Amino acid sequence: MTAETSQTLDRGLRVLKLLADTDHGLTVTELSNKLGVNRTVVYRLLATLEQHALVRRDLGGRARVGLGVLRLGRQVHPLVREAALPALRSLAEDIGATAHLTLVDGTEALAVAVVEPTWTDYHVAYRTGFRHPLDRGAAGRAILAARQGLATDPGYALTHGELEAGASGAAAPLVGVTGIEGSVGVVMLSDSVPERVGPRVVDAAREVADALR
């Protein structure tokens, strides 16, 4: 901690991060041990966060992230989209296919940024806000592979006809971006994805991840 930072705010943010990393919530004792502070401090932090609906406690006393976080999260997508657009534009123009950034939203994949190539006669119409199950389409499959630790070789997912008849997709997961699960990919009207597309998508995903760090 430096003279310019707030110890209380720092601890509150650490509480939120700890709760975000668990599916079952944490008790006051568990938070106290993880933060290295006494239980009284944790009680005060939780009470303050509860007032803002950022934390909720169940009947068993376990604390979890509250619904107030969702209101803050609505402002995240525009920021993420802005950071990703340069890499997506370059990818779309290079490959001649529609490029997209897809993030996890609950149990679905949500397209939050889409860029279409400017020089092709035709391309797949893939719109911002498009949703699909995580286990269908290259974008979702790339995310699931990363979640399961399987996205190291070759580092991208390929699909054909899973979301739209006659369309093929390639996507690579975002790696090393705290708090964001997503992928960068392209979708094209073809029976298969050209060999160079997979590695190019991986490069684009790395560029987006760098922009978001």
From TrEMBL:
UniProt KW DNA-binding keyword: yes
Any matching Pfam family: HTH_IclR
InterPro entries: ArsR-like_HTH, GAF-like_dom_sf, HTH_MetabolicPath_Reg, Tscrpt_reg_IclR_C, Tscrpt_reg_IclR_N, WH-like_DNA-bd_sf, WH_DNA-bd_sf
SUPFAM superfamilies reported for this sequence: GAF domain-like, Winged helix' DNA-binding domain
Keyword Oxidoreductase: no
Keyword annotations from UniProtKB, A to Z: DNA-binding, Transcription, Transcription regulation
IclR-ED domain residues: 68-213
Start and end residues of each HTH iclR-type domain: 6-67
Entry protein name: IclR family transcriptional regulator
